[in-house]
Amino acid sequence: MTNDAVAPPEHRDESAEAVRRDDGLLRFPFASADPLRPPGEYARLRAERPVARVALANGHTVWLVTRHAEVRRVLADPRFSREAITRPGAPRLLPVAAGSKSIFVMDPPEHTRLRRLVGRVFTTRQVENLRPRVEELAEQMVSGMVAQGPPADLIAHLAQPLPITVICEMLGVPQRDHLLFREWTDVMLSVSARTSAEVSDAAARLRRYLTALIETKQRHPADDLLTVLITARDEDDSLSTEELLAFGETMLMAGYHATTSEIAHGVLTLTERPGAVRRLVEHRDQLPVAVDELLRYSQAGGGVGPIRIALADMEIGGVPIRAGDAVLPCINSANRDESVFAGAEELDLTRTPNPHLAFGHGIHHCLGAHLGRVELTVALDRLLEHLGEFRVAVPAGELRWTANRAFTRPDTLPLRW
Predict the structure, then answer these.
(1) Residues 6+ apart with CB under 8 A from 100
(2) pTM of the prediction?
(3) How many domains are contained in the chain?
(4) I need a labelling partner for 76 at 20 to 30 A (CA). Which of 108, 140, 300, 312 fits?
(5) Cα separation, 216 vs 98, whole angstroms
(6) Per-residue pLDDT tens for 372-401?
């Protein structure tokens, strides 16, 4: 641990026994007294029951895996199926359509085939070609904050518009329709704040729009990702319309919401530590390493994520898992595993190596990982250059959080500088 490691402020965890059901099972997701910090259950489970049976709000039970080594194994082991969660009655934390063609819920060999076709547009080289445009957009957005003057809302000025604009421009969505995409995906990723009818309606509207957009690109090819995917072929293989639709939906929801939340969490984490902001103002070249530590430290995912179904009997962490059991690898907990990360509860902006699992692991490692790093790095770089030692303009307790979405963030985040 270096001198840049900063201990988090004291906080009180009030969630310990309140989440226990009558049958003794813990309810998941767990609550936390502070959205920036993991629930106390994670540390207790890592120490005492790293593979523990927990109950979801919908009544299903799953095996929650909380230690880094076991989480990595679940993420990489082909005997754990993502596709199986699309079957009727399967336990899930977010709505997943039966028969979904999303790469997010595919198993090999279909996953292998689809990833081979779409992976070519997410290479490091291709993403680096996007960097100048990301820098241009972030420069415009942060300059708008400066022009308005403090306090300025980070969410409205930068954290929301940057990722949704990047994703929409990549797909070839006209600028006038970006707000529609944002509204639809906001509803679709709601965990409990919207009715199932509202979620279904938003999904249907998004699908109709994407269907029309794909048809337009087929008639009039353009210089955008959808056109590339429409024409992508591997020998005689190509993407079906259904696969194109599913991939467009996945990109919008994951690329927009995840990045928006990570920008907000990163900024809040830094502003709790003025010395960290000051250091990065003076050493912006160290941002790439700092960004990986912010990703490790972040709780933006909220523990809501990639349930798998065991396809065979096996053992994890000494616990027997039976075929058909649902298993939830908890990445937020794994990223605080003391056996892997020295001073895991401290933020160390110079931490290397940093084997965090924020982008997953194995065949489902996030295709957009490099793009996400670029957007977060560029956003922080522009903020540090133009705002200097920024800080949150209101007490932390006054921030209102979007607790009912798959990715948590404040509704607004006013900054002063």
Answers:
(1) 86, 246
(2) 0.89
(3) 1
(4) 300
(5) 27
(6) 999 999 999 999 999 999 999 999 999 998
Number of H helices, E strands in the chain: 15, 15
| pLDDT tens digits, 340-371 | 999 999 999 999 999 999 999 999 999 999 99
In a 13 Å sphere around the CA of 66, the CA atoms on its Cβ side amount to: 24
State the average pLDDT for the chain. 88
- Angle at alpha carbon of residue 321, lines to 317 and 327, rounded to 5°: 85
- Supply the range of the domain harboring residue 255: 5-416
CA dist., res. 124 & res. 24, Å (int) = 47
CB atoms within 10 A of CB 267: 25
Lookup: tokens for 28: 């998941």
Residue 263 CA to residue 371 CA, distance in Å, equals 13
Is the bond leading into 150 cis (omega within 30 degrees of zero)?
Answer: no
361 contacts 75 by C-beta, under 8 angstroms: yes
Alpha carbons 39 and 81: distance in angstroms, whole number: 27
Least confident span in 94-98, 133-137, 260-264: 94-98
Q: Give the list of residues 6+ apart from residue 225 with CB closer than 8 angstroms, or none.
A: 121, 170, 171, 172, 251
pLDDT band, residue 11 (cuts 50/70/90):
very low
